[in-house]
Amino acid sequence: KQEVTQIPAALSVPEGENLVLNCSFTDSAIYNLQWFRQDPGKGLTSLLLIQSSQREQTSGRLNASLDKSSGRSTLYIAASQPGDSATYLCAVRQITNAGGTSYGKLTFGQGTILTVHP
Amino acid sequence: EPEVTQTPSHQVTQMGQEVILRCVPISNHLYFYWYRQILGQKVEFLVSFYNNEISEKSEIFDDQFSVERPDGSNFTLKIRSTKLEDSAMYFCASSQRGLGGDQPQHFGDGTRLSIL
């Protein structure tokens, strides 16, 4: 059974710092890994999706890496801003589940609560 | 940018009552999903739906739950007889393709379901 873990659980940094959020998963048979942002009381906003064949994806100040064989991904946020404060979730999409082919089920980590203070 | 919309944003229901949560996925998407998030816990997969049938479901998705695409735009989750432990935020998501693995899932803002 796939387990996804995120470290740290919470992070508080001053504005302008570069930071790294970590995600690990136990089953490396994945299609892709997706990073989301969740604001309090809101839905999930997709930030980046990395295919299993890719090592890295970039969008603006965000860079996500994937090391499938070791079951790890990192989300790098450059020059953090107060508006980056949110919970960041990673989720993996597996190739198969116990019953056979998986049809898009995402397994989520518990998230990292990021606070960027001015 | 197209988005997934969910209604209502908050639903309060008495235990044992039926509840229907509604979602309008992004118009050219073909795969639809429901997830839930109990307060303070991880987001959990409930069900995926494609071509008018369930593709995959979790252990949570028992006989009390059902999904339907009654027309070309709506996607609904019905809980037949609600229990206290059904209280959670329910998220609908959609993607252009499920197999192939190269399309992100886009989520709505959720419906907060409170069972009294």
Rg of chain B, nearest Å = 13 Å
Number of helices of chain B: 0
The secondary structure category of chain A is mainly beta
Helix content of chain B: under 10%
From the spread of the alpha carbons, the general shape of chain A counts as globular
* Residue windows where pLDDT falls under 50 for at least 5 positions of chain A: none
Quote the beta fraction of chain A. over 45%
The residue-averaged pLDDT of chain A reads 92
Shape of chain B: globular
E-strand count of chain A: 13
The CA-CA distance between the termini of chain A, in Å, is 41 Å
Question: Could you give the distance between the termini of chain B?
Answer: 37 Å
Main structural class of chain B: mainly beta
Annotation field: number of helices of chain A: 0
The sequence of SSEs of chain A as H and E is EEEEEEEEEEEEE
> Percentage of helical residues of chain A?
under 10%
Along the chain, the helix and strand elements of chain B come as: EEEEEEEEEEE
The major pleated sheet of chain A works out as: 6 strands, mixed
Rounded mean pLDDT of chain B is 92
What does this structure look like?
The complex is a heterodimer of chains A (118) and B (116). By secondary structure, chain A is mainly beta. Helices cover 0% and strands 60% of the residues of chain A. Chain A contains no helices and 13 strands. The mean pLDDT of chain A is 92. Chain B is mainly β and 116 residues long. In chain B, the strands form two sheets. In chain B, strands 2, 4, 5, 6, 9, 10 and 11 form a seven-stranded mixed beta sheet that branches. A four-stranded antiparallel beta sheet of chain B has the order 1-3-8-7, with no helix packed on it. In chain B, strand 7 and strand 8 (75-79) form a beta hairpin. Chain B is globular and about 40 Å long. Chain A binds chain B through residues 31-32, 34, 36, 41-46, 49, 51-52, 89, 91, 93, 95, 97, 99, 101-111, and chain B through 4, 6, 31, 33, 35, 41-45, 48, 50, 55-56, 58, 91, 93, 95, 98-110, 112.
